[in-house]
Specification:
The structure is a single chain. By secondary structure, the chain is an alpha+beta fold. Helices cover 43% and strands 29% of the residues. It contains 6 helices and 11 strands. It has a 5-stranded mixed beta sheet with strand order 5-7-8-10-9, with helices on one face. Strands 1-2-3 form a 3-stranded antiparallel beta sheet, covered by helices on one side. A hairpin with a 5-residue loop joins strand 9 and strand 10. Helix 1 packs antiparallel against helix 2, helix 2 packs parallel to helix 6 and helix 4 packs antiparallel against helix 6. The termini are far apart.
């Protein structure tokens, strides 16, 4: 009886799948063995990433849904509820619905990005216009949070090859993040500059900062440094993941410099042929 052996082993942090099978000769006699080695480390990692993503997404969606359900059931059960209490409950339902919509929209964006090997970069994008538009769009949010939002861009426009919608989302996420964790009387600076053949976008704040041990993980999906504060601020834990994906798809790099109570600087560098256009 011929027996094949299939085992998995670990060698220097790599997972190896091993298949050993008999090798038959012309007379159907065993003359040796075939050994097939396959490195399945990346496959196992991807399986874990998918599993963790599904579990985290389910948890994030369940939280607002459970809150909405509980509030609605309370309203239904109490037909004589005071109008002021009812108004408060309806406001909470609205907030949870907005949070739910934000999570779903972020998941849709990530799904769209994942479905593409790279974001299309076949059109000229005026980064100066994108930065200026995001600045104007976020001024009211910053004012409502007691944050001073400042803009610093060169007099000449910087034009690169890219996708405007994705780049707009990337800059918006970085500015949103800075505003959320800046606090009252905070300052957020949005800068665009050119360094050789690189377009450089900086978002700097004087907020609470990010501990060094968390800085390598903040771009992971659903990862939060302070989960309670993030939920309180309406964060989904997906914003920086989208930033990293957009930057990577434009063959760029995003870095972070931060310290507790010393503020944070996110810097995005995108290589491209840059063209100066007079304003």
């Amino acid at each position: 009886e011929r027996i094949s052996l299939h085992i998995s082993i670990k060698v220097d942090e790599r997972n190896i799948d091993v298949l050993i099978a008999p090798l038959d000769g012309l007379d159907n006699q065993v003359i040796g063995a075939i050994i097939v080695l396959q490195d399945i480390t990346e496959m196992l990692h991807l399986e874990k990433v998918r599993s963790d993503f599904v579990a985290n997404a389910s948890h994030e969606l369940k939280t607002p849904i459970s809150a909405i359900r509980g509030l609605v059931e309370t309203i239904i059960d109490d037909s004589s509820m005071d109008k002021s209490v009812l108004t408060t409950f309806l406001g909470r339902i609205q907030n949870q619905a907005i949070r739910l919509d934000t999570i779903v929209q972020d998941l849709i964006r990530l799904s769209r990005f994942d479905a593409q090997d790279t974001i299309r970069r076949d059109s000229n994008v005026n980064l100066s216009e994108i930065i200026r538009a995001v600045y104007k769009a976020k001024l009211e949010d910053a004012a409502d949070s007691g944050v001073d939002l400042m803009l610093d861009i060169p007099s000449d426009s910087i034009v690169i090859q890219g996708e405007s919608e994705a780049l707009d989302q990337m800059v918006s996420n970085l500015v949103d993040n800075a505003i959320k964790y800046c606090g009252d009387d905070g300052k957020v600076e949005l800068r665009l500059s050119r360094r050789g053949q690189m377009a450089c976008i900086e978002v700097k704040d004087n907020g609470i900062g990010i501990p060094k041990e968390d800085q390598q993980r903040i771009f992971e999906r659903f990862y939060r440094v302070d989960r309670g504060r993030s939920r309180e601020q309406g964060g989904t834990g997906l914003g920086l993941s989208i930033v990293k994906h957009v930057v990577g798809s434009h063959h760029g790099e995003v870095t972070v410099r931060s310290g507790l109570d010393k503020g944070t600087v996110f810097e995005v560098r995108i290589p491209s042929t840059l063209v100066a256009v007079s304003e």
